[in-house]
Prior knowledge:
Elements: H1 7-18, E1 22-26, E2 34-42, E3 45-52, E4 63-67, H2 74-77, E5 81-84, H3 89-98
Antiparallel strand pairs: 1-2, 2-3, 3-4, 4-5
Amino acid sequence: xxxxxxxxxxxxxxxxxxxxxxxxxxxxxxxxxxxxxxxxxxxxxxxxxxxxxxxxxxxxxxxxxxxxxxxxxxxxxxxxxxxxxxxxxxxxxxxxxxxxxx
Length: 102
Protein backbone atom coordinates (compact mmCIF):
# COMPACT_ATOMS: atom_id res chain seq x y z
CA UNK A 1 0.00 0.00 0.00
CA UNK A 2 1.38 3.43 -0.86
CA UNK A 3 2.65 5.41 2.11
CA UNK A 4 1.21 8.72 0.94
CA UNK A 5 -2.50 7.91 1.24
CA UNK A 6 -4.47 10.70 2.95
CA UNK A 7 -5.90 10.17 6.42
CA UNK A 8 -9.44 10.34 4.99
CA UNK A 9 -8.74 7.10 3.09
CA UNK A 10 -8.12 5.20 6.32
CA UNK A 11 -11.26 6.63 7.96
CA UNK A 12 -13.30 5.57 4.92
CA UNK A 13 -11.85 2.06 4.89
CA UNK A 14 -12.55 1.69 8.62
CA UNK A 15 -16.16 2.80 8.08
CA UNK A 16 -16.57 0.26 5.27
CA UNK A 17 -15.16 -2.53 7.41
CA UNK A 18 -17.57 -1.60 10.20
CA UNK A 19 -20.40 -2.18 7.69
CA UNK A 20 -19.08 -5.65 6.86
CA UNK A 21 -17.02 -4.88 3.75
CA UNK A 22 -13.65 -6.62 3.50
CA UNK A 23 -10.67 -5.77 1.35
CA UNK A 24 -10.35 -7.97 -1.72
CA UNK A 25 -7.45 -6.63 -3.78
CA UNK A 26 -5.36 -3.50 -3.80
CA UNK A 27 -2.55 -1.59 -5.38
CA UNK A 28 -3.91 -2.15 -8.86
CA UNK A 29 -1.95 -0.40 -11.64
CA UNK A 30 -3.67 2.91 -12.31
CA UNK A 31 -3.62 5.73 -14.80
CA UNK A 32 -2.98 9.47 -14.29
CA UNK A 33 -6.45 10.01 -12.78
CA UNK A 34 -6.12 7.59 -9.86
CA UNK A 35 -3.36 7.33 -7.30
CA UNK A 36 -4.64 4.08 -5.78
CA UNK A 37 -7.52 1.61 -6.12
CA UNK A 38 -8.87 -0.90 -3.65
CA UNK A 39 -11.77 -3.34 -4.02
CA UNK A 40 -14.05 -4.48 -1.23
CA UNK A 41 -16.61 -7.30 -1.09
CA UNK A 42 -19.66 -7.97 1.05
CA UNK A 43 -22.38 -10.58 0.53
CA UNK A 44 -21.52 -11.15 -3.11
CA UNK A 45 -21.26 -7.45 -3.98
CA UNK A 46 -18.12 -5.57 -4.93
CA UNK A 47 -17.16 -1.93 -4.80
CA UNK A 48 -13.94 -0.39 -5.99
CA UNK A 49 -12.67 2.80 -4.44
CA UNK A 50 -10.37 4.97 -6.54
CA UNK A 51 -8.32 7.76 -5.01
CA UNK A 52 -8.71 10.49 -7.65
CA UNK A 53 -6.00 12.97 -8.53
CA UNK A 54 -5.85 16.14 -10.59
CA UNK A 55 -4.50 15.62 -14.11
CA UNK A 56 -1.87 18.37 -14.06
CA UNK A 57 -1.22 18.89 -10.39
CA UNK A 58 1.22 17.55 -7.88
CA UNK A 59 -1.15 18.20 -4.99
CA UNK A 60 -2.92 15.68 -2.81
CA UNK A 61 -5.80 13.53 -4.08
CA UNK A 62 -9.04 15.52 -4.24
CA UNK A 63 -11.70 12.78 -3.97
CA UNK A 64 -12.57 9.11 -3.73
CA UNK A 65 -14.70 7.65 -6.50
CA UNK A 66 -16.72 4.46 -6.19
CA UNK A 67 -17.65 1.89 -8.83
CA UNK A 68 -18.73 -1.76 -9.02
CA UNK A 69 -15.77 -2.87 -11.15
CA UNK A 70 -12.22 -1.69 -11.66
CA UNK A 71 -12.75 1.43 -13.77
CA UNK A 72 -11.13 2.12 -17.11
CA UNK A 73 -11.39 5.90 -16.85
CA UNK A 74 -12.08 8.74 -14.45
CA UNK A 75 -15.81 8.87 -15.21
CA UNK A 76 -16.28 5.15 -14.60
CA UNK A 77 -14.40 5.50 -11.30
CA UNK A 78 -17.26 7.63 -9.93
CA UNK A 79 -20.13 5.49 -11.22
CA UNK A 80 -21.61 5.07 -7.72
CA UNK A 81 -20.54 8.45 -6.37
CA UNK A 82 -17.72 10.71 -5.32
CA UNK A 83 -16.56 11.76 -1.87
CA UNK A 84 -14.68 15.05 -2.07
CA UNK A 85 -11.84 15.06 0.48
CA UNK A 86 -11.84 18.80 1.21
CA UNK A 87 -13.26 20.66 4.16
CA UNK A 88 -16.43 19.08 5.53
CA UNK A 89 -15.84 15.69 3.91
CA UNK A 90 -16.99 13.84 7.06
CA UNK A 91 -20.43 15.46 6.70
CA UNK A 92 -20.86 13.56 3.42
CA UNK A 93 -19.32 10.24 4.45
CA UNK A 94 -22.61 8.63 5.55
CA UNK A 95 -24.38 9.42 2.28
CA UNK A 96 -21.39 8.15 0.31
CA UNK A 97 -21.46 4.83 2.20
CA UNK A 98 -25.24 4.44 1.83
CA UNK A 99 -24.81 4.41 -1.96
CA UNK A 100 -23.23 0.96 -1.63
CA UNK A 101 -26.21 -0.56 0.20
CA UNK A 102 -28.38 -0.84 -2.90
